[in-house]
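Can anyone check this?
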Amino acid sequence: MASILLPDRHGSLTTLTLSAPARLNTRSTPPTSRAVYAAAHVVADPLRASAENAADQIDWDTTLQLRRDLWSLGLGVAESMDTAQRGMGLDWAAAKELAVRTLTDARAVDGKVVVGIATDQLKTDTPSLGEIRDAYLEQVEAIESVGGEVVLMASRHLAHAATGPDDYLAVYDAVLSAATRPVVLHWLGSVFDPALDGYWGSADPGAAMDTVLAIITTHHERVRGIKVSLLDPALEIALRNRMPDGVRVFTGDDYNYVGLIAGDGTHTSDALLGAFAALGPFASAAFARLDDGDEQGFRNILGPTETLSRLLFTAPTQYYKVGVAWLAYLNGKQEHFRMIGGFETGRSLPHLAELVRAADAIGLFTDPDLTAARAAAYFAVHGIR
């Protein structure tokens, strides 16, 4: 079997002999037991990718092929969200073009898509609440007009401008009243984005929950669900227990998704996860078991993946998409390891090596010889021989 020389955090080098790939029985049809979306990443054009944040840094063909691969596994695609470097190299103009291209491709294969919308077209750091409302409305209209359904992403502008819960209630009331399709709300914790600390108008999670539930209850018919990315399973369960009938909770907890999706016998979470961009075949095979009523089989397949996911999402959490792109490169899904905005520099070489070890432990690599060659070459060019 193929072997790789890998560095650790102390500067020592150890040899890893790669394992055989996991044997997984995937399905091409969407799961019936849960609604499942993978937040997909964006592949850069290696000739243009740089810290300049130019608008032409995307390799469109490879980026869209990643989405087709997810649909072929029965998974939906959550587009233009954090995993796609939204606000970290991907601006609104590029996010809109990405969404339109993905929605067009999805129609050919009946693929499921939801699209993140935000307020990132605003040019000032201190917009008024009215400007924030109008920015949301512009993006909702842009995506709905081409047949898309939206995830109303948390807004850094609103987190900065709002003085309390009433401001959130007013902005969300206006946006949801204008939406023509059911919307997924988004509660993104400060662990993912420190600028969102105190979202919904309070640093107290209980008070914040009251506000978001008031929004959902008022607009019950327009809210499909809420994506919860707090890395706090107890808080997600508490919200889930209070949710009005028919409104879904989509877990975005990349540390604890297995138990949250499996549920507690009364309530369950659906899934909208960045981790599934890296773990697509495992998710497909696991949900096939869950669809067949085999919860233990679901846990047996997906449970071991949480170790890798927690490593991907280790602090500073916003750099998790570096690991997603790294694993895609090592698995032959893209031909290089560069990211728009030079984002790949957000993780160290020892961290990348740890990802190789954790991914190998679950049999993620489908062609160990290719993986070994690519990893060895990458580390060698950085002086690891």
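Reply from J.R.: I decoded it. The chain is about 45% helix and 10% strand.
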